[in-house]
Design goal:
- This protein is an alpha/beta fold and 388 residues long.
- It has a domain at 8-251: P-loop containing nucleotide triphosphate hydrolases (Rossmann fold, 3-Layer(aba) Sandwich).
- Helix content is 43%, strand content 13%.
- The strands form 4 sheets. A 5-stranded parallel beta sheet has the order 4-5-10-3-11.
- Helix 2 packs across helix 15 (328-348) and helix 12 runs antiparallel to helix 15 (328-348).
- The chain is globular.
- The protein starts with 7 loop residues before the first helix and ends with a helix.
């Protein structure tokens, strides 16, 4: 009897990091423990952009390198430099000839078109130490995080390659639509001890769906032992030898999740809709008639909430003065990641039965720090969870 074919996501659950070691359980969902590596893989399977914060030397760059290895050599990488400009991006993506041809009104030959096409199809856009460039330079990455490039003629060139795929509705009716798989990933140094770093542009953070502060995830003792024993006395960053390109698995997992979004279970959608409203509108409520009970309409929030001493209990003060409502994009990111966590848990353990509420709570804990809190470095995650 032929064994059943594994799903793409089931295969992804078996991929181990080449070097990065951290088996800390960040959270458990339906009995499935999630380590930092699993969290990142789930986000990649959902096509979510990722940002990695952290102090130097605590594994941020190694995690970044191991993610890069998932694409083999099919990744485009930039460094946080103030002399970066769009022309550099063209050269890195093999589009300099395209830009020149557009400027001169000339045609490209077939070999040049093939070169351009293969470059644009690279699915991972990586930016290392992004906050070593000023905010104006960081802004050049906004379109890359959205999955496209704009040339001088105003046209948009889709990264990862746009493809036509067929999906179906619950009644069996099929339809075709364009899909693409491209993900942005950046690292940034956190803390006040660095020179030459800049603040992160809020617009860039807003397009980064999952931002992880790796300093919150201390390696287990067994991880530290293994790091020492396998280091060979070499403290430098380790690159994977001849890494296998696994991006096709992540793209297929994304397509599978996309299909399930077109054929959802009614009860799950109802729960998601209620939680979506809570994130966007429920958390916007503030006990202040002068602001029409809206944090967004209180233009001086959160200072205004403190000056008016709004809230009586500590929980109310926390909600009214610290937790901001999620934007529509932020709430969608939280729900999308929650879906990915449920899918990942079931792929790793087919007997697992993760529910919507638990997955959304875990998603909020990880994503809400930068979506819904003003200063996540100074706020207790456990307090955030208990109040929300």
């Amino acid at each position: 009897m032929t064994p059943p074919t594994k799903s793409a996501l089931a295969e992804i659950t078996e991929i181990e990091p080449p070097t990065y070691k951290n088996n800390l359980t960040v959270f458990t969902l339906a009995g499935v423990p999630f380590t930092p590596w699993k969290v990142v893989k789930a986000a990649l399977a959902a096509r979510l952009n990722i940002g990695l914060y952290g102090e130097q030397g605590m594994g941020k760059s190694q995690l970044f390198a191991d993610v890069r290895s998932l694409a083999g050599n099919e990744a485009v990488q930039f460094y946080g430099r103030n002399d970066l400009d769009v022309k550099v991006a063209f050269r890195r993506l093999g589009l300099s000839k395209v830009a020149q041809a557009l400027k001169e009104g000339t045609d490209l030959d077939e070999s040049e078109l093939i070169q351009m096409t293969s470059a644009v199809y690279k699915p991972l856009i990586l930016v290392e130490e992004i906050n070593r460039s000023v905010e104006m330079v960081q802004n050049q990455h906004l379109s890359l995080m959205e999955g496209f490039l704009e040339l001088g003629d105003g046209k948009r060139y889709v990264l990862g390659g746009g493809k036509r795929h067929t999906f179906h509705y619950p009644d069996g009716e099929t339809f075709e639509t364009n899909t693409r798989y491209s993900v942005g990933l950046w690292t940034a140094n956190s803390g006040t001890s660095y020179t030459g770093t800049s603040t992160m542009d809020p617009a860039l953070k807003g397009r980064t769906h999952l931002i992880l502060d790796v300093d919150n995830f201390d390696p287990e003792n067994e991880d530290l032992d293994e790091i020492v024993l396998n280091s060979g006395g070499e403290p430098r960053l380790k690159e994977a030898d001849n890494p296998k390109n696994r991006i096709a698995l992540f793209e297929q997992a994304y397509l599978d999740m996309l299909q399930r979004s077109f054929t959802p279970q009614v009860n799950l959608i109802q729960e998601e809709v209620m939680l979506f409203r809570y994130l966007v509108k429920g958390l916007n409520y503030i006990d202040c008639a002068g602001a029409e009970y809206s944090k967004r309409k209180m233009k001086s929030w959160p200072r205004g909430a403190e000056e008016k001493n709004i809230g009586t209990t500590e929980e109310e003060k926390y909600l009214y003065r610290v937790v901001q409502p999620a934007s529509v994009r932020g709430a969608l990111s939280i729900l999308t990641f929650a879906r990915a966590l449920r899918e990942y848990a079931r792929a790793e353990n087919p007997r697992a039965k993760p529910n919507v509420l638990d997955s959304v709570v875990e998603s909020m804990v990880l994503m809400g720090a930068y979506i819904m809190l003003g200063n996540p470095q100074q706020i207790s995650y456990s307090h955030f969870v208990s109040v929300i």
